[in-house]
Design goal:
There is one protein chain. This protein has about 50 residues and is an all-alpha fold. It has a domain of about 35 residues.
C-alpha cells in the first residue's frame, strides 16, 4: 500500500541522470527513518542491507 501511494508522485527529474526509481527512494527513506536512521548515509546503509 505504501508503494502504491508514492507511485502517484510525478517524478520531474531529468531522465538522463536517473539511477533509481523515485518511488523506491521515497519508500526506503521512510523505512530508514522509521528504523532510526538519522541521515542519508544511514538510510543508504539501511537500504543496502535490505536490498534483497
Amino acid at each position: 500500500m505504501l508503494i502504491e501511494m508514492f507511485e502517484e508522485i510525478v517524478d520531474v527529474r531529468d531522465s538522463l541522470g536517473k539511477r533509481h526509481c523515485l518511488t523506491h527512494i521515497i519508500v526506503m527513506s521512510v523505512c530508514g527513518i522509521l528504523n532510526k536512521c538519522i541521515d542519508f548515509e544511514d538510510i543508504y546503509d539501511y537500504a543496502k542491507a535490505k536490498e534483497k
